[in-house]
Amino acid sequence: MLKTISRRHDTHHQNTEGQQSDLAESVFRYGPYALIVCLIVGAFLMPAATFSIDEAMYVEMARAMAETGSFSIASNGGVDGSPALLQKLTHEVDGQVYPQYPGAYGVIAAPFYALFGISGLILMNALSTFPVAALTYRLALRLFDDVSIARIAVLLLLFATFVSTYAFAIWPHMLVLALVVGATERAAASAQEEGPRALRAAALSGLALGCAMALRVDAFLIAIAIVIWLRLFGAPSRRSLVLAFAAGLAPALIGSALINEIKFGVLSPISYGPPSTQGNHGEYGLQFMLVSVLVGLLLLVDVSNRRIGMAINMVSPAKLMAASVVLVLALLATSGTARAYAMNVYVLVVDLQQLGVDHFVPGIVEHENGFVFFWGILKPALLQSIPFAALAILPVIRLVQGQRASQHALLFAVAAAPIAFYALTRWHGGYSLSMRYFLPSAAMLAILSAAALHKDMFKDGTPPRAFIYALIAGVIAVMAAPMIGDQTAGLSVFASAYGPLLLAAGLALTTTAQAIPAAAARVRPASTALAGLAIGWSAAASFDDLGDLHLKLLSQEAISRGFETDTPKDALVFSTVEEWLADARDKGVHVTNPQISDQEGEIFDAFTAADRCVFIHLQKTVQSFDPPLDGRIERISFPSLPDGANEVFAPISQRATCAPEDG
What is the DSSP annotation of 632-648? Predict the structure, then answer.
C-alpha cells in the first residue's frame, strides 16, 4: 500500500514538474513578443511630457535635427539686437545655442520625433529595452553556459531593478545600456575566441562602446573597465585584442569629435562645452591622467608572462584579498581623502540618506521627517533600490576562490566602473528617482545575483516554495507601507529607506555563511527566503517608482499643454523651468532663462521693441532680472494653466494684444 502511494506521489510530482517546465518554456518562447507589445503600449500610455531639464534638452535636440537638420536648438528668436536665448545646460557659440549633451542623440532621435513627437522619443528608449534583455541573456549565457541563469538574470533586470522606470523616459539610458551590455558580451567573446573571430569581437565591442559614448560620455568608464579586464583576466597574452578594441572605438569617437567641433569648436569626443567653460571635465584631469598611466602600464606588462605568473601564483587569492583589506584599512586610518572617498561610496551604494546638505541641488531637499527627498519622493541609494544585489557576495567569494575568475571579474569591473567614478564627487544623479547612472551596475549585478540564486539557493534549479512565498511577502510589504497612515508617516519612510538595507544585510550574512560547507545546508533556507523577500521588495519598489513617474509626468503635461494653449506663436517666455514649455516650443514659442543669461534686460527690450509678446513665468524669474522690471510689468492670467503654476507676468504695454482671453 505504501509503495503504491509512493509511486502515485512520484508520478504526480513528475507531472507537476513537467507542467511547470512546459509553462516556463511557453513563457520564454512567447515572452519576447509580449515584451515588445508592452514596451510599445507603455511608451504611448506614458504622458508625453518632460521629467526634467535634461529631458527638455533631449527633446530640443531631436526637434532641431528633425525640423532644420541642425545641432543648434535656438539663436536670437529672429529679433534684431537680441542676444542668444540661453537656457540651462546650453552654451552660446557664434550666436547659436547648443546643448551640452552629445549631438549624436539628435541624429538618432530625429525620425522618432518626426513621427510621434515626444512620445516617439519615449518609444525609442522603450524599444531599446528589448535588446537590453536579449543581450543580458546572451552575456549571462556566454559567461555561465546555463540557460536558467540567463533567464533569471533577465527577469531580475526587467522586473526587480529601476530599469522599468527608465525604460519609459526620454533619457537615452536604455539605448546606451543596450550598447554597454552588447559591448561587454563581445568583449567576453573576444577572450573566448581565437584568431580573426576574436579580433572581430573585440572591434565590435569597441564600436558599441564608441556609439554609447556618442550618446552619453560616461560610457567611457565601461571602456576603461573592459581594457583593464582584457589585460588582467580576459586575454592577458593578446595585446592585439586591446588594439582591435581601440580600432572599434575610433569611428564613433571621430564622429563625436567632429560634432563637437561644429558645436563648440572643440575637436574632442568628450566635451560638454567650449574651451572657455567648465564643460570639458577638466576637474577630473588628475584622475584621467592616473587611469591613462595605468592602462599604459597594462599594455606594456603581460601578466601571463611565466615569471610574473609564478610570482602571482606564490600568493593565494585568499591571501591577496586579505592583503588588500589590510591595505584599504591602512589607507582609511591614515588618509582623509581615502575616508572621504569611502564615505562617498557608502552614500551612493548603501544609504543616500547620509547625503549631506553640501550635496543638495534644486529638487533634492531634506524632508520635515529628516529624510532626503526628490520632488516629494524618497531618494534611494543603489542597495536601497535593489537589496537583492547583496547576493553578489557569493560571486565575490567564488572570485577569491578562483572559480570562473575571468567571468566574475568582467561583471564586477563593469559594475564598479560608474560607482568608482561618481563617488569622486558623491554625485547622486540630480533630477532622477534612483541612481540612473548605475544602470550598467544594475545589469551586471542582476547576472551575478542570478548565478548565486541558481547555483547556491535553488536546489535542482527549482525555486522552493519558501522563496515564492517570501517574494510575494516582499511585494505586499512595499504596497502596505503607504497604508500605515499620516500619524506614522515617519515610520513609513523609515521602513522604505532602511527596510531594504536590513534585507540586504541579512542576505549578505546568510549568503556568506552559505559559502561555508559545514553551514551551507542549515543556512540555505534562511538565505533563500531572504533572497525572495529582497527580490519582491525590489520589484514592487521599482514599479512604485514607475507609478510616481507617471503621476509626475501627468502634472508636467498639464502645465506644458497650458502654455501651448495660451502662449501665442513667436512669443518669448522667460522661465527658470524650461521643461514646462516643451509643447509651446513645438508651435514656435521661444524660451530663455534669465538666471543663465547675463543679458536678460537686452533680450526683454529687443523683443518688446519688435512688438513680440513677452511673458515671464514665476516671481522668482522676475527677481532674476537686472536691472529690475519694477513698473514695467503686471501679473496676468493664463487660464489654461493649473492653479499651482498660474503665475505669469507681461509688459503693461502688451496688455491689450498679448494677454490670453479667458475661455
Answer: TEEEE--TTS-GGG--E
Report CA-CA distances (Å) from 390 to 322, 329, 446, 449. Answer: 20, 22, 10, 8
In sequence order, the 6+-apart residues with CB closer than 8 A to the CB of 335 are none
**How far is CA 69 from each of CA 60, 63, 100, 114, 428, rounded to the nearest angstrom?**
12, 9, 17, 12, 34
CA nearest to 32, candidates 166, 98, 131, 126: 131
Count Cβ neighbours within 10 Å for each residue of 459-469 and write b for 16 or more, e otherwise: eeeebbebbee
The amino acid that residue 290 corresponds to is L
CB 71 within 8 A of CB 226: no
Nearest to 414 by CA among 77, 204, 180, 144: 180
Distance CA 549, CA 286 (A): 38
CA–CA gap between residue 8 and residue 566 (Å, rounded): 74
* Confidence tier at 611 by pLDDT (50, 70, 90): very high
Residues 6+ apart with CB under 8 A from 67: none
Contact 378, 502 (CB under 8 A): no
Give the integer Cα–Cα distance in Å for 603 and 574: 10
Q: Rg of the chain's alpha carbons, rounded to an integer?
A: 27
pLDDT digits (tens, 9 = 90+) for 459-491: 766 788 889 999 999 999 888 776 665 444 567
For 319-328, b/e burial (b = at least 16 CB within 10 A) is eebeeeeeee
Confidence (pTM): 0.92
Give the burial string for 161-173 (b: 16+ CB within 10 Å, else e).
bbbbbbbbbbbbb
Spacing of C-alpha 639 from chain mean position: 37
Tallying the residues shown for the chain, one arrives at 663
- State how far the Cα of 408 lies from the Cα of 444, in Å rounded to an integer: 10
The b/e string for 33-66 (b: 16+ C-beta within 10 A; e otherwise) is eebeebbeebbeebbbbbbbbbbbbbbbbbbbbb
CA distance 110 to 1: 74
- pLDDT on residue 487: 43
Residues 6 or more apart whose CB falls under 8 angstroms from that of 596 comprise 86, 87, 88, 90
Give the cell for residue 578.
524650461
Q: Measured in whole angstroms, how far is the alpha carbon of residue 646 from the centre of its chain? A: 33
Place of cell 506663436: 569
Q: What does residue 649 show for φ and ψ, rounded to 5 degrees?
A: -125, 150
**What is the structure's pLDDT at 14?**
44
Per DSSP bridges, beta strands 590-592 and 572-574 are: parallel
How far apart CA 442 and CA 153 sit, in angstroms, is 10
With bands split at pLDDT 50, 70 and 90, how would you rate the model's confidence at 304?
low
Q: What is the DSSP string of 368-425?
A: TTS-EEETTEE---HHHH-GGGGGGHHHHHHHHTTTTHHHHHHHHHHHHHHHHHHTTT
The answer, yes or no, to whether the previous bond of 627 is cis (omega within 30 of 0) is yes
